[in-house]
Predict the 3D structure of the following.
Amino acid sequence: MITFSRRVIAVCALASALTACGASAGPAARPPAPAPSPAVPSAPPTLAAGPAGLTPVFEHGPRAAGKVVALTFDADMTADQGPRAAAGEHFDHPRLIGTLRALKVPATVFMTGRWAEEYPDQARAIGRDPLFEVANHSYSHYAFTADCYGLPTVPKERMRADVERAYQAFRAVGVPDPMPYFRFPGGCYDRRALEALTPAGVTAVQWDVVGGDAFATDADAVARQVLDGVRPGSVVVLHCTRSAAPTTEEAVRSIVPELRRQGYRFVKVSELIGAANGRG
């Protein structure tokens, strides 16, 4: 019995040795496949330069691309309003942002650099939330033409620097990927402004529906104005400042369910621009 057991052990040991040798003598084992490279995100869609290389201007998406609409919100604060903020005036609107999140509404926030500096935590949270995209509304919120709602005017030679300073402010507070879209303060621009911003490589984004919420006191009137104006591909301009647009959040709570009832889908400006380029 002991002799038989020893033979069995010897045979097993020999088999193990042969198996090991066979493994080492056979074809070399294939190295593990390399891990796939992480996908490189594509650049945000922009419009091609306009005539004579001018900064392109986008007002709305394709009308025949389905019932989509982009809500945009201007987070305004001019460079000289710091003392007013220090005295307690609110240029932010966290309740509005919270409502957009609760309703799951994608949106584009056109932010001034000065606003981002005043509310860095909010700017960073908006910029890192995939529901939103942050775009440029200048640093100073000064006008890029004369006679624009009483705003101070940026000299032509300083226009590009004002836009670039806003991007610097976004990066400083932790906004990771601000979009290459720019909205003129007050919506005011002319050929000189478009020429000045050509080297910045931005697409100027206007709108085709004015919400009328600036300094409004009747949320229902704001909602009606938006609902009456929206068409497929529309860009709606509203505001993200409690002091200057106190009824916007209430109006949004009426606008969103009604447009959804009508079959509209909410998108960011980038999706509309992509559709205009044939990428959507």
The beta strands are 57-58, 68-75, 107-111, 132-136, 181-182, 203-205, 209-210, 234-239, 265-267. The radius of gyration is 28 Å.
